[in-house]
What we know:
CATH superfamily of the largest domain in chain B: Response regulator
Helix content of chain B: 40-55%
Radius of gyration of chain A: 20 Å
Oligomer: heterodimer
Distance between the termini of chain A: 59 Å
CATH topology of the largest domain in chain B: Rossmann fold
Number of strands of chain A: 4
CATH architecture of the largest domain in chain B: 3-Layer(aba) Sandwich
Shape of chain B: elongated
Number of domains of chain A: 1
Order of helices and strands of chain A: HHHHEEEHHHHEHHH
Number of domains of chain B: 2
Strand content of chain A: under 5%
Low-confidence stretches of chain A: none
Number of helices of chain B: 14
Distance between the termini of chain B: 56 Å
Mean pLDDT of chain A: 89
Largest sheet of chain A: 2 strands, antiparallel
Amino acid sequence: MSLQEIVIQQLFNGLLLGSFYGLVALGYSMVYGIIRLLNFAHADIYMVGGFCSLSLLTFFGGTFLGKGWLGIIVSMLITMIVVGLLGVIIERVAYKPLREAPRLSLLITALGVSMVLYNSVMVITAGEYRAYGTGLGYDGFSIGSVFITHTQAILILAAVALMLVLHLFITRTMYGKAMRAISMDRDCCRLMGVNVNKIIALTFFVGSALAASAGMMAGVYYGSLHFYMGFTIGIKAFTAAVIGGIGIIPGAMLGGLLLGLLESFGTQIPLIGSAWKDVFSFTILIFILIFKPTGLLGKKESERM
Amino acid sequence: MAKRLWILAFVVVLIASGVFGCGQPAAPSQGEDEEAGGAEAPQFDGEILVGIMVPVTGSEATYGQDMENAMKIAADEINAAGGILGKELKFTLGDDGCDPQMCTAAASKLVSSEVVAVLGGYCSGATIPALKIYGDAKVPFIITAANSTELIKENPGWAFMINSPGYHQADAAADCFEKLGVSKLAFVHQGDGFSENLAELTRDEWLSRGHEVVAYDVVNKGEQDFSSLVTKIRSSGAEGVYWTAYHADGAMLIMQLRQGGYTGEITVADGSSSVQLLEIAGAAGEGVYCTSPPVVDYLPAAQKFISTYNAKYNQEPGPYAGLAYDGTHLLADAIERAGSTDPDAIRDALAATDKFETLCATVTFTPENVLEESNFMILKGEGGKWVLVE
Lengths: 305, 390
């Protein structure tokens, strides 16, 4: 492989990894934006999404839908709805009663929800890895020695499409406007007649649905699922959200892509290599935060007294 | 006086094993042996409590459970033959979770339960911390799977390894790649005690044979995306990849190597010898080689053990079941030879083991308490199963 080809291939690897980070980061960012909560359970929602879609896909595998793209798309839509609703239920049961409580209580509750989710899945799956069998092969196209499978290409497009839809939803619809308004001043919104509870529930629905779609894509792409799979990606996605400016939607996407690219190029750079790639990417991220503490797209927030 | 009693007990055991052992050869393999054996169970003079330290939760739970099952089969056989020194062999479990911290807790728990000896040790990283604990408490420890050379260095003298150590496997791996005609090799490990140690040993062996190492990389546990690593390996011109860590991540690496257009040879080490690797990897797992410890399926002497295991647990024994079974019998033999449960006597008896025939190997220990002869073999993934390569 020539240097050029290596760069193109790593660019592609980074984009794919980054779009997974971005999809998960969006949920962190949206929830933080609207109720100032670091939702630690979000990474587990991603994992639950993976498992939920696997059961659906296994079920559809026996019907006319099959395990190919048709089955995958149908399972993905159902998974997003089911897991989105799970997010709403979690918000209603665990977070809503504590909305006026000190933020630390909410944070600890989120940790609790996270444990409940992954321990439940651990018990159900007996702690074992599950193979994610799809009908997709390893066909792809190569440009020189750059090799990209169809699956990879479709997944990137799907992730980008989801992010675009979300962006339009936030910027062009009344619901999106209400979300942005609540993140600025919740009490004022309530006075203006915005149904705050409904909008917060909607935020959880959308964030969880996106994480679930990322969980499913990870299953399709990596071929296996595990109850602890959310842990690493959760930390990385959370970092991505902070780097982009937490609470800011395009920031989460940008942060995710940036982290993905840093990681894949870090692996290739001599002396850094795979062992130090996380150190490399996080060092750069720390520098970004030193010079821009509110994140890449973050605005200066003046404290209201 | 006490010694004479022990000798008497020993004779009684011998007679008992002669009577009961030959009288009911198939008894332990019955599914509900507890009830079936109730009427004719041998009378025991107390019990010998032995600790099992294996991971029964976490990513390596499959292996740990499998080892525990195999030990229970061996214990059933030993007890059906009159127990050890006329006493019933009983187990207590400590879950090390393949995690150094959990291992320390499990080892302390076993020591405080006053076990006579401990069997087990699957992940080397989660076995090393236990060595000192057992050494301080004077508890003989038969390591039935873990085989990092770090264990040899850290061993205070109370641990005995019945799996071939890493350097035996490094030779096997280098032989395997040489036979496949590979000369540029890439190594991937996971940065834990076991996989890093094996990667290092094999790399040194490979270099000393005059070949080339083009990549030496690590993937972090819990990470799913190896695509950038795959690109790096492809761009290094590697003809072979040796994965030295465990099966779950190994399967993902194999899939992503094939997905990323890598067409060279792939060999995985013993931590990946589970059939689950081939199940998860699917089509990508075809033609993958494995340097494996003795898997009972291919050992002629182990057929009876396999059918007993099948009947009792309704599943196939895993890759370390044979060694776990062997370890239990070795311990029983050593305690019999020691003539008491005195820790020093058991340790000396273990060290003096001379050509003890087990399913997987003939056990004789070197002065470092390591197996004298290697027991590795090469497997290949074909049709979703491992088959022996000769």
